[in-house]
Design a protein that fits this description.
Shape: elongated
Radius of gyration: 16 Å
Number of helices: 5
Distance between the termini: 57 Å
Strand content: under 5%
Order of helices and strands: HHHHH
Number of domains: 1
Protein backbone atom coordinates (compact mmCIF):
# COMPACT_ATOMS: atom_id res chain seq x y z
CA UNK A 1 0.00 0.00 0.00
CA UNK A 2 2.82 2.43 0.83
CA UNK A 3 4.42 1.83 -2.57
CA UNK A 4 1.11 2.65 -4.24
CA UNK A 5 0.82 5.93 -2.32
CA UNK A 6 4.39 6.87 -3.15
CA UNK A 7 3.83 6.16 -6.83
CA UNK A 8 0.54 8.06 -6.88
CA UNK A 9 2.11 11.12 -5.26
CA UNK A 10 4.93 11.10 -7.79
CA UNK A 11 2.50 10.81 -10.68
CA UNK A 12 2.35 14.01 -12.78
CA UNK A 13 -1.46 13.80 -12.79
CA UNK A 14 -1.43 14.00 -8.98
CA UNK A 15 0.57 17.26 -9.14
CA UNK A 16 -1.91 19.04 -11.42
CA UNK A 17 -4.37 20.19 -8.73
CA UNK A 18 -1.59 21.44 -6.47
CA UNK A 19 0.08 23.26 -9.37
CA UNK A 20 -3.18 24.87 -10.43
CA UNK A 21 -3.98 26.02 -6.88
CA UNK A 22 -0.49 27.49 -6.41
CA UNK A 23 -0.56 29.30 -9.76
CA UNK A 24 -4.04 30.71 -9.12
CA UNK A 25 -3.09 31.82 -5.61
CA UNK A 26 0.11 33.53 -6.78
CA UNK A 27 -1.69 35.21 -9.68
CA UNK A 28 -4.45 36.38 -7.31
CA UNK A 29 -2.01 37.82 -4.75
CA UNK A 30 0.27 39.36 -7.38
CA UNK A 31 -2.66 40.87 -9.24
CA UNK A 32 -4.11 42.27 -6.01
CA UNK A 33 -0.78 43.94 -5.22
CA UNK A 34 -0.62 45.48 -8.68
CA UNK A 35 -4.18 46.80 -8.36
CA UNK A 36 -3.37 48.14 -4.88
CA UNK A 37 -0.51 50.29 -6.15
CA UNK A 38 -2.88 53.07 -7.16
CA UNK A 39 -5.57 52.47 -4.55
CA UNK A 40 -3.57 52.47 -1.34
CA UNK A 41 -0.11 53.62 -2.40
CA UNK A 42 1.85 51.08 -0.34
CA UNK A 43 5.44 50.89 -1.52
CA UNK A 44 5.81 47.13 -1.15
CA UNK A 45 2.98 46.51 -3.65
CA UNK A 46 5.20 47.82 -6.46
CA UNK A 47 7.69 45.03 -5.81
CA UNK A 48 5.77 42.14 -4.27
CA UNK A 49 3.19 42.10 -7.09
CA UNK A 50 5.68 41.41 -9.88
CA UNK A 51 7.62 39.02 -7.64
CA UNK A 52 4.54 36.92 -6.90
CA UNK A 53 3.56 36.86 -10.57
CA UNK A 54 7.10 35.84 -11.53
CA UNK A 55 7.04 33.00 -9.01
CA UNK A 56 4.30 31.32 -11.03
CA UNK A 57 7.02 30.29 -13.50
CA UNK A 58 9.07 28.09 -11.13
CA UNK A 59 5.82 26.69 -9.71
CA UNK A 60 4.66 25.77 -13.21
CA UNK A 61 8.08 24.36 -14.00
CA UNK A 62 8.11 22.13 -10.94
CA UNK A 63 4.45 21.18 -11.28
CA UNK A 64 4.90 20.05 -14.88
CA UNK A 65 8.17 18.28 -14.16
CA UNK A 66 10.29 20.56 -16.35
CA UNK A 67 12.21 21.80 -13.31
CA UNK A 68 12.78 18.82 -11.00
CA UNK A 69 13.31 20.14 -7.48
CA UNK A 70 13.16 16.76 -5.76
CA UNK A 71 10.87 15.56 -3.02
CA UNK A 72 11.11 18.83 -1.11
CA UNK A 73 10.30 20.95 -4.17
CA UNK A 74 7.00 22.32 -2.93
CA UNK A 75 8.53 23.10 0.44
CA UNK A 76 11.43 24.93 -1.22
CA UNK A 77 9.06 26.90 -3.40
CA UNK A 78 6.86 27.82 -0.45
CA UNK A 79 9.81 28.94 1.64
CA UNK A 80 11.26 30.92 -1.28
CA UNK A 81 7.97 32.67 -1.95
CA UNK A 82 7.35 33.42 1.73
CA UNK A 83 10.88 34.59 2.47
CA UNK A 84 11.12 36.58 -0.76
CA UNK A 85 7.85 38.36 -0.07
CA UNK A 86 8.86 39.14 3.51
CA UNK A 87 12.28 40.48 2.49
CA UNK A 88 10.87 42.58 -0.36
CA UNK A 89 8.10 43.93 1.85
CA UNK A 90 10.40 44.77 4.75
CA UNK A 91 13.27 46.24 2.77
CA UNK A 92 11.16 48.27 0.36
CA UNK A 93 9.18 49.95 3.12
CA UNK A 94 12.22 50.43 5.33
CA UNK A 95 14.27 52.03 2.56
CA UNK A 96 11.54 53.92 0.66
CA UNK A 97 8.92 54.55 3.31
CA UNK A 98 5.51 52.99 3.76
CA UNK A 99 3.50 55.11 1.31
CA UNK A 100 4.26 57.03 -1.85
Amino acid sequence: MAAYRRQALGDPAARRPKTAIWVLALAWMGGACLLNIRRCGRVHCRYTGPFLLAMTLPVLGHGTGLVPLGEAGWLLLGLSIGAGTAVIWGLSERLLGRYR
